[in-house]
UniProtKB/TrEMBL annotation:
<keyword id="KW-0812">Transmembrane</keyword>
<feature type="transmembrane region" description="Helical">
    <location>
        <begin position="77"/>
        <end position="95"/>
    </location>
</feature>
<feature type="transmembrane region" description="Helical">
    <location>
        <begin position="12"/>
        <end position="32"/>
    </location>
</feature>
<protein>
    <submittedName>
        <fullName>EamA-like transporter family protein</fullName>
    </submittedName>
</protein>
<dbReference type="GO" id="GO:0005886">
    <property type="term" value="C:plasma membrane"/>
</dbReference>
<dbReference type="InterPro" id="IPR006750">
    <property type="entry name" value="YdcZ"/>
</dbReference>
<feature type="transmembrane region" description="Helical">
    <location>
        <begin position="101"/>
        <end position="119"/>
    </location>
</feature>
<feature type="transmembrane region" description="Helical">
    <location>
        <begin position="139"/>
        <end position="155"/>
    </location>
</feature>
<feature type="transmembrane region" description="Helical">
    <location>
        <begin position="38"/>
        <end position="57"/>
    </location>
</feature>
<keyword id="KW-0472">Membrane</keyword>
<dbReference type="Pfam" id="PF04657">
    <property type="entry name" value="DMT_YdcZ"/>
</dbReference>
<keyword id="KW-1133">Transmembrane helix</keyword>
């Protein structure tokens, strides 16, 4: 069986849609933080997500926890730390979206940070990923993302 190295149109559409949902999430979390604070925004986001996940699991008739009470088979324990990075991300974006960066600047710089970290993760095989050496076009993409971010942030006047 051969695996295609090109994403399907469905994968591209799903990734694009997740970017739109991420934008809504950051905006909603920023609004909650504006009326409370960043920590409260993170609690609201994760509390709502927990309730939604439990409801979805109930509708799908799935058990919320693995049968033996431990981690799912084959899942490294550090994978469960994703919730910590999610909580910190909500607090950071809730703070910056209410700053002069606004929503577009926050998301533009966030995208740059994601690409830089993903290149590092590919390069050194972090988090169990296969090692892949970045190519010059990858660094060009990072440069263009940061240049676009600067235009978004400083080109408002």
């Amino acid at each position: 069986m051969t695996v295609s190295t090109r994403p399907s149109p469905l994968h591209l559409l799903l990734a694009f849609a997740s970017g739109g949902l991420l934008t809504l999430m950051v905006d909603f979390n920023g609004l909650v933080a504006l009326h409370g604070n960043a920590l409260y925004s993170s609690w609201v986001a994760h509390g709502t997500g927990t309730v939604a996940a439990i409801l979805f699991l109930a509708l799908m008739r799935q058990r919320p926890f693995p049968a033996k009470g431990g981690a799912a088979p084959g899942t490294p324990l550090w994978a469960y730390l994703g919730g910590v990075s999610g909580a910190v991300t909500v607090m950071l974006t809730s703070t910056t979206v209410n700053s002069p960066l606004a929503l577009s600047g926050t998301l533009a710089l966030g995208l740059g940070g994601q690409v830089v970290f993903s290149l590092a993760a590919d390069r050194w095989g972090l988090l169990g990923l296969p090692r892949r050496m970045p190519k010059p076009r990858d660094f060009a993409a990072v440069g263009l993302i940061f240049a676009g971010s600067m235009i978004i942030i400083f080109g408002r006047s």
